[in-house]
Amino acid sequence: MTPDEAAAELGVTKRVLMDSYRRWGIPYLKVGKHVRFRTRDLHHWVDARMQRG
């Protein structure tokens, strides 16, 4: 998924995502000079950070 799509999925702006994805540890792929995110990796990353109450 593109950074725009990933940002929408996470509920953040593209700028916040692109400034933070490495620091946050979100898995990504480089396709040429472009950054891409796999949907399943993004969902696993979110699931791993869910607070259980």
From TrEMBL:
Give the protein name, as stated in the record.
Helix-turn-helix domain-containing protein
Task: Check the record and name the NCBIfam families matching this protein.
Answer: excise
Entries under Pfam families matching the protein = HTH_17 (PF12728)
InterPro entries linked? DNA-bd_dom_put_sf (IPR009061), HTH_17 (IPR041657), SinI_DNA-bd (IPR010093), WH-like_DNA-bd_sf (IPR036388)
The Helix-turn-helix domain covers 1-49
SUPFAM superfamilies in alphabetical order: Putative DNA-binding domain
**Gene3D superfamilies xref list:** Winged helix-like DNA-binding domain superfamily/Winged helix DNA-binding domain (1.10.10.10)
Give the organism's phylogenetic lineage: Bacteria, Bacillati, Actinomycetota, Actinomycetes, Kitasatosporales
Gene source species: Streptomyces melanogenes
